[in-house]
Input
Amino acid sequence: MAFFDMSRSTFISMATVLVLGVGFAAPLSAAEPSSSAPFSQWLEGVRKEASAAGISGNFLDVALAGVQPIKRVIELDRRQPEFTLTFWKYLDNAINPARIRRGREMMAKHQKQLQVTARRYGVQPRFIVAFWGLESNYGTHTGVFPVLGAVATLAHDKRRSRFFRAQLLAALTITNRGDVNIRVKGSWAGAMGNFQFIPTTYMGFAVDADGDGKRDMWNSYPDMFASAANYLSRSGWRSGWTWGREVQLPKGFKLEHSGLKIRKSLSQWQVLGVRAIGGGRLPNGDAEASVILPAGYSGPAFLIYKNYRTILTWNRSILYAIAVGHLADRLVGAGPLKTKRPANEVALSRVDVKDMQRLLAALGYDAGGSDGVIGPMTRTAIKAFQHKSLLHADGYPTMGLLERLRGTK
Output
């Protein structure tokens, strides 16, 4: 889990996007020492804050002994991929035959415990296992960095010092409680265990389901399944509902009806001509749903429900949320998406995206800066430009769109 965008990573391991003010909700702080101070001096300030929050000095002596900045963590934090991932490439990385096969094996192996978890929290087993597969490849990639050292490195760094200072204090709290070992390892950003919870999420949502006094998300299947389900349940998961479905749009479908902000009842979508992917009717009911086009108007269309939005509280990437939902479907026998892939899809480079953002800004469209990341503001700006230019206003960045923008200069 991560509050920042890791959707471009080849291995998909994510964490919660919520900065949960759990535990150290009081001044974390206004008097927070500057991270421009030498690391040892800065760490002493963290030690004092943790001590004031009730963590014993003896424990802090042991936990913080030898904690030093990790150069590789900063390198990974600064890493910028050369190319963006297209929808299809992202999905291929997330969902492959090996991951589907292993996920089905895990569902069968842990069926009893998954059912116990589902009854308690209302989250279906296939979704719990899908998150597990994407977060850590079913526990095979839980991280190699010392968590205390990693989050201390990022907390001392200026870019997101406040956020990671909270993570460091939370990590000290959960290790002091005995939930995890002080030498625990995780991702370079401090995500831990089979479901890659960051420390504040661990504090707020991890569950001791097996009653042994510890919340163990490495070795206790009851704990790890319950923790993931508890997070989803408390984030608004609707029991018994799916996440969404691939759908068929009618010819002439108005693209202004698409997007997460546009919500209509299933009956309204039916009237507008939206159908199940085989042409059948949508389910009856007044439940709200949205149509999204993650690969543009020529790619697959999805009708997404409340649970898709709950997945987005785990990770803000619309592609990640689709990957979770589609993998969950594949685990229980569904087939691949029906929409055909484009023959020659060209991925935009980061330089291309920056150029697109600058050109949009020059034309008066706020793309949220020129960081080379295709986020919600960039998509909104693209959609506005497309609409004004009488193009298919799907908000999808393509090389053709970039060439058109370059031609407007």
About this structure: Residues 2-34 have pLDDT under 50 and may be disordered. The domain at 244-331 is CATH 1.10.530.10 (Lysozyme).
